[in-house]
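Below sits my pick:
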Amino acid sequence: MRIVNLIIVSVIVSCAQDPVPDPPAPEIFVQPTVVGELALPERSFALPADWVGSSHIYVAHHPDLGTLVGGPTGLFRLQADALVSVHDGEQIPEVDEGAVYGLSVTDEFVWVASASGLSVYDGLLKASPINDELPTGAVRAIVRVGDSVWIALEEGLWTFDGTQLGQLAQIPGVYQMIAGSNQTVSVTTVSGQSLLLKSSEAGVMQHDLSGQGLLRDVVPVASDRLFALEGGALKARVPHSQGEWIWRRTALASEDGAEPVSRAWTLSATSAGDGVWIATADALSSWVGDQIETLPMPLGLNSVLRIHPTSDGRVWLVGTERLVRLGGDGQPPPTYCDDIEPYYQANCEHCHNATPSSQAIDLSGHTAWSQRYDSIFALVQAGAMPKDADGRVDGGALYMLQRWQEGGMIECDTP
């Protein structure tokens, strides 16, 4: 009996001396401090049958040329409720662009990256003015960085500042570029490499992110913060200690105990490059600084493949079967008195007037333009009007006419 007692005591003493492990530290999430709601009017547009399910659909807006949409079968204009090929009405297109891989807006025109190379649209799609200096082949991505355009070819990246063209970096296989803050661009290649490129007067600095996880849609929003997706998880790279960085999971709510995002679809930089648009299974959110604004995902949109903020303040969501536009026009529609009549007087009145000597149809007055709108639009679209157009399509006039028709063909602002 004495031996048994000693054994029991020894076991008790041994257990009491084992160290108790510390509980794991709670995971720290990146969260906004201010949360608000967005309310944006919504409108849907059906995708062409050949585009259904494609993520290679791009949207851009030019203030004088309107909204352009590029996809697997070429470049299209947004016209009323439908997408219309920019070649509609052309007898012999100057450029056969094939699949479009990106759009970038400058003051003069819209740059178009496509399977056939680089082209520009100013009412007519034509070869870019720098094609003779660029290597031949498909242009897989294009983005505007400051006053320059970055162009991704198979051999690497090139840049054009409006005057000079030069090779930026020898990074082959680039298929996606996202321009963020401080002239910083994230680059993704077909081999899965993720890079950050920062442009400065001294040149371009490169930082490889490939060893930091299976990242996609990397968005640089500030010098001390990146957003990216890893699977469906939303992550943010933030300062950690002694000049180091750490990727943390991210929540879209500000309260303690908020769950991190696990079903994110895609990311995009905001138009200003200082924030990120986030599409999840439940909502669309805009995160700028420490503030986030959210609106519910449009009904029936079961997936978002891309987000395209445009310069007119709208946001476009690329679904599997439709495009969804969020946001109003932001500008009053044109009127006959302020817009159509001055155009008529400058371009049409010398032939289409009410004088006995005129041999053309009289187009003077609001009634004539509203009744003959379809034929006028078709002639301008074909480059057959005005008479001195010589086949050149006036993209600005087309966009004005389209907005006038969509706005109700208003005669004057005031009686």
User: Anything to note?
Assistant: Residues 267 and 278 are 5 Å apart (CA to CA). Residues 1-15 have pLDDT under 50 and may be disordered.
